[in-house]
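Fold it.
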Amino acid sequence: MSNQSPAYFDLDTVALLRGALDDAWASLKPGQRATISRTLLAEGILREASKGERDPNRLIEAALIAASQPAA
């Protein structure tokens, strides 16, 4: 998202994104929560949301994929 203009979301979308983040976090096992930050999950969600994605399941999937990628 750093090379793009900032994304702005309305309140309903922010609520949807927050719910996706909470659901993605809840889907992790306790051991995974110890090694993955919520910020990393949020980055995956925001990356997809900035492209127009609003499906909660796809946003959760994007979060989990972002969390599984090796650090750059």
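The chain has a mean pLDDT of 91.
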